[in-house]
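To start, an entry.
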Amino acid sequence: MVLAIAPASARADDDDELVITAAEMEDRVRPPRLTADEAFLIERQPRNVAEMLRFLPGVSAKTNSRGETIARVRGAEERQTQVFLDGAPLAVPWDGRIDLGVLPAGLVRSVEVAKGAVPIEYGTNAVAGAIDLRTGDDATGVHGMAQVGSDGFATGSVVGGAAVGSFHMMFAASGVTRDAEPVADRAALPFSQAADGGRTNTDLDSVSLFGALGYAGPVVAARASLLRVTTRRGIAPESDRDPAVAAPRYWRYPDIDLTQLTLNASADIGEATTLRAVGWRQWFSQSIDAYSNASYTVRRTRQDDEDDTLGARLVLATAIAPFDLRLTSSAQTSRHAQVDTNLQTGVAGPRLVYRQNLFTVGAEVDAPLGPVKATAGVAYDRATTPLTGDKPAQPATDAVAFSLAVQGDVARDTTLTLSGGRRTRFPSARELFGEALGRFLINPDLRPETAWLADIELAWQGATANLVVNPFYQRGAGTIGQRVVRVNGVSLRKRYNQSGTRTYGVDAQANVALMAGLDAEIFGTVMSARADPGDAAFRRLLQRPAYEVGGALRYRPFDALLLRGEYRRVGPAVDLDAAGNRAELAAGDEVNLRAQWRVARIGSSAVSVTMAVDNLGNDVITPQLGLPSPGRMVRFGVRID
């Protein structure tokens, strides 16, 4: 099976992998996690990193009104799931999010999703979970792919690597372009949508470059990598909104540039002691042009952003029999500078500068307890905002995080893991100070949000099948939500701390070999997400489907041909309309087809032709009001592995 729920003891070689965030140790117990390896990712033919998360139980990636495709674990708020690349946080700290829709799929060789009370190495703000993207450090030779598809879609990537003695080099390049996203049903887009052609204002051009140089010695290992992503794009307007009443975002991004430098290192400093370190420097800039209407001919305002982030994490791991101990500390500082310009008058506003600092220090201990083993952790988190632009000063905030996980065998080939803890997320600087070109009203009293998390994971591994069932519970305090307020006759959104939230449900998945060459996958999440009675306009939390279930059949009639069919149903949810009223989001279905046929070999490389059909039934799935998912797309391509 290519999708694995990885218990703590499942991957002993992780200790030798330099680029992971939370390393394995023999008796370490971790909350639920999913590991998707390279074979799993290749056969699903994702167009970008966001699509790598499809068909992972409890995980989704949804496109918001800013055009960003954001990972969400168990329907959590967008900023509650942290994303890491080779051990370094990838989100732009000003916003607390990263757009996975523009990150190239060809760069990432494996994905690990941690859910619940994640290990303390992930630092602050990982309230719902964390996603680890790994480029790997052992690629050799040259691999590549290219695809073309509907509505001017085209993508290509090449990845190469070589080892010379104790050194390893890797490079990758990727590009993607499209004229527009396909439309499933024009009746679902009553406003700001052209009568023909693709989805209004959804063109995209993006180029990514990556390089890495690593060294692996008997005592010390190190790796330096550099990622550069340059993007130009439009974003779909919220087509439920009548522009005469409440205009949507008529935005375009003429420039988005992300550069991230990551340094990883580890050293054995004793017979049972290892020091791991990761440092990161991120430069991010973007421009947002706001237009007057759906013709995108007259620009009203422009926002120019520049971000500079520096951070590091140290982990000292040692064994003091019979315990394993980890001491962790991390720090990050991020500066955001912003200029808003009225393009009608040509007058630029002041250059506003903001800064947010995050700190974590903590410890975890692993202990064998007779027939079971346990891991306990505690951490202290702190956030400061020494620069607040033209907004009022904010006090420093801090919180204590802790967790406990216990694991044991309850039957042959069956493991039970109990885990839980407390995590806190500090508001991002954008939540505290950002007005989004006049869309938001600032709330100077916004506070951190806290989550109490609990998971039960029952995992069974047979010879030809496996099954994982994972009930979960999350109690939120001060969860940051949105409400609509009227100011001088204009509807604005305002963030606020809800009095409390409760989310509970079940993640489940099963893989089974039905016969030679034919496998089946089944996955699903069923959950209830409610706010406490009180200050919420209505109790059901926004954009959280009641269920998401599906499965796939994977058929290999002979070694060179792989066929795959996927089905996913997304349950009903609710959202806010432009006036702040409750709006229903209907359930929807998605059917995808995949094929890969190896047609030749060139030396040691295999050449395959590929085919993919996304949303075969052209059904409407609406993760957010006015922003349905794309319609049917057909893609053809070639791979060299």
In short: The radius of gyration is 24 Å. Confidence is low (pLDDT under 50) at residues 1-16.
